[in-house]
Structure formats: C-alpha cells, structure tokens
Amino acid sequence: MTTDITVPADLWEGETEGVITAWLVNDGAEVAQGDLVAEVMVEKAQYEIEAPVSGRLSITKEEDEVVSKGTLIATLQA
Amino acid sequence: MTTATKSASRKLTTARAMAEATAQEMRIDPRVFVMGEDVGPLGGVFGNTRGLFDEFGAERVRDTPISETAFIGAAVGAASDGMRPIVELMFVDFFGVCMDAIYNLMAKNTYFSGGKVPVPMVLMTSTGGGYSDAGQHSQCLYGTFAHLPGMKVVVPSNAFDAKGLMTAAIRDDNPVVFMYHKALQGMGWLGTEKGATVAVPEEAYTVEIGKAAVTREGQDLTLVSLGAGVHHCLRAAQALEEEGFSAEVIDLRSLVPLDRDTVRESVAKTGRLIVVDEDYHSYGVSGEIIASVAEHPGCRLRAAPKRVAYPDIPIPFAPTMEQWALPNADKIVAAFHQMLTDN
C-alpha cells in the first residue's frame, strides 16, 4: 500500500510558500511511523515533517524545492 | 525536544547534530548549561539549540541580553567555579565587544593560576557568508582565534564531526572555541551545503580534537581546507578527476591543536599543495598551513604552493560582488591549472 506524505495544512499559519531545507532520511530507506523525515523552512522558521506510517521512502520533492500546504513531497510503500 | 528517525540511515543537519550532542551531555552532567542570545525558546538563530529549552528549562538554557562581555565573562566565572558552560557568540564578527572576556579571561586564567583554575567552557560561534549578510555578519576569522594561545579551536565540516567535536568540546577541561559555518547548518536562508547533512549515530561519541581527516584520497595534489571549504574542495577534486588528476582532500577539523603531520604526510605523497580558506588571504590559516609544510626538513614540493582564500577586503553585501570574492570549486581548479603552467 502506498501512503502520500504531504505538507500538513496546519504546519504553519497562513498560506506562505515554504522550501524543503533537508531530507533527514535517504531516498529508498525504511522509516517508522512518527520518524522525522524532512524539514521545511517558511520565512526563516523551520517546521518538521514526520512519517505518517511506516514504509519505504520515495522522495518526490527534493531539497531546495518550493512547497505549499498540501504539496506531495514523498510516498511511503508499506 | 529534538526527535529524529530511528532508521539506520538517519541523517542530521549540523544544527541538529550540535543540539543533540549538547542535550546528551546535559542529561548526564548537571554542570553543563547553555547561555546566549536567543538560545532559549527560539532554539538559536542557526538552529543549534533547538529543543534544549523545552527539555531542560530556563535555568539551564538561559537567554541573555545583548551584552556579550557580561555573559561570556559570567561563563568564565561559572567555569572557574566548577560548571561547564556553553556560550554562544551569535556571529563571530561580534567578537570585538567581548574579546577581553574571551582572550584575557577565558584563554589565560588557567595559565595565570598555575593550572589551579581550569576553565572548561565551550564558546560556539557562527562563521561565514554567501547569503548577503554583509561585512559584519559574514566573516570567518579562523586565523584571528587560532592565533591566540590558550584556547582550542575546532571547525566541523559536516554533521557527524559537529556532533563528535561538540561532545569532545563539552568534556574537555580547556576552553574550546567551536566555529560552525552557517552554510552547513541546514537552515535554508543561509545557503545549504547538502554534503554537510550526513548520517549521524544516535549514541554519544567524540571526534578527537586535533586530528584532521583525509576526506578523499589522491596522488597528484593535496587540497587542505576547513568548514564549508571542504565541500568546495570535494567538488574541485571531482572536476579534476574528470581531467585525469587525483586530488587528496584534507579536512583540518581542528585549528588548535593543528594536525600538521597529516598535512605533511599528504604533501610528501602528492608534492603539490593548495589551501582553501574562506578567511582572509593574508596572515591566516592558509599561510600557516603552507609554512608548516615549507619549514619541515622533509619538504619536497614539486610546485610552489597556492591558496584560494578570501581577498583582503571587507565582505561585500551585493550578491554578485560577494560571490566573486568567495572561494569555490572553479577557483580551485583554476589554481591547479596555473600551478601546472607555472611549472
């Protein structure tokens, strides 16, 4: 089963765009539910994105790419 | 609280690695505490104290007024009295207002007391530019601090070394200046060097202060650098490989003590030396490394050494002017080509 990792709608206030500053897990690695996988920066504040479920990570938005709330940034293959 | 994945491939930014090392030492040693501007609820403007305030509270993670002389002086007093403070000078460029506390107190009290009053503290401070923060927020000043006896000085180039060097610095009974380059922190607005975010073990470990690392092995040329410069060297080495030359890259990691032996051994093998330093060209790390090689009786250089360093000018604000002045891989490759031509 494939689960999307999207930028949560409540991660920061307002509709400002953000940038992925770091992937903290390699593409293709196995992660557990709740693991910190990426950081997103919005106007010099950093926000954390966790894995919603366990699975193999497949990154679709690379570091330095611009993201908005709801943007698909990776998938997890259980 | 700094949470991170349990996965074997877990990577950390340098900022997180510094915070994790600090948190792990604070958990086992009640003498360790942190002081500085915006190190508390904000987590440090460069992210390196993130999570500490939530875990340890305002008593051990203390936001200070903008008064570097006062809080660095207070840290020297606390360290002399048995505590192990970590203080942050937010930008190394601000050293001018607190150098007496750093250099006449922190660095010298152990000597002045005949060794009876150790000063086990860490002064962490950000270095480097590249993101148009102008001449009073972009300097490296490695040579300035490494020049002054009485303090150890470390400069990590990646998250693994940052964690190990921070743990070693906190446990060290001497004052240690921990200089971290902003582009390596993993904070987007400072310019992000992707190669600095690497796999980092969860358990505490130390990287020995005073040991350089051979980051890439080679036969034709030795590139010596530190901090962000190591990543320029690795890109240059990759470009030179495509031309058929093999470059060795040495990451100094520590300026005091300086691992001259590792540099000399490499140059003895390659016969060619280029030093890459984002600090100013004159009177700095690059000159010291070249002198350390040249003055050694075993020195056998095949070409005159070169340096790719910051020009002796105030750091420009305008992006095109700043980027012109900074070291980069193209300049390193060009220096090597010039070296071959000169010969």
| Structural class by helix and strand composition of chain B | alpha/beta
Strand order of the largest sheet of chain B: 3-2-4-5-7-6-12
Q: Could you name the CATH class of the largest domain in chain B?
A: Alpha Beta
CATH level-3 fold name of chain A: OB fold (Dihydrolipoamide Acetyltransferase, E2P)
Domain Lipoyl-binding (chain A): 2-77
Pfam families (chain A): Biotin_lipoyl
Protein name (chain A): Lipoyl domain-containing protein
Organism (chain A): Bisbaumannia pacifica
Itemize the secondary structure elements and their pairings.
The complex is a heterodimer of chains A (78) and B (343).
Chain A: E1 2-6, E2 18-23, E3 30-31, E4 36-42, E5 45-50, E6 55-59, E7 66-67, E8 72-77
Antiparallel strand pairs in A: 1-8, 2-4, 2-7, 3-6, 4-5, 6-8
Chain B: E1 11-12, H1 14-28, E2 32-36, H2 52-56, E3 61-63, H3 68-80, E4 84-91, H4 99-106, H5 109-112, E5 122-127, H6 142-146, E6 152-154, H7 159-171, E7 176-181, E8 198-199, E9 213-216, E10 221-225, H8 229-242, E11 247-251, E12 254-256, H9 260-270, E13 273-280, H10 285-294, E14 306-310, H11 319-325, H12 329-342
Parallel strand pairs in B: 2-3, 2-4, 4-5, 5-7, 6-7, 10-11, 10-13, 13-14
Antiparallel strand pairs in B: 1-8, 6-12, 9-11
Would you mind describing this structure in some detail?
The complex is a heterodimer of chains A (78) and B (343). Chain A has 78 residues and is an all-beta fold. Chain A has a single domain, classed as RNA polymerase II/Efflux pump adaptor protein, barrel-sandwich hybrid domain (OB fold (Dihydrolipoamide Acetyltransferase, E2P), Beta Barrel), CATH 2.40.50.100. Chain A contains no helices and 8 strands. The termini of chain A are close together. In chain B, 53% of the residues are buried. In chain B, 35% of the residues lie in helices and 19% in strands. Chain B is built from 12 helices and 14 strands. Chain B has 2 domains: 11-199, Rossmann fold, CATH 3.40.50.970; 213-342, Rossmann fold, CATH 3.40.50.920. Chain A: It comes from Bisbaumannia pacifica. Chain A: This is Lipoyl domain-containing protein. Chain A: Its cofactor is (R)-lipoate. Chain A: Residues 2-77 form the Lipoyl-binding domain.
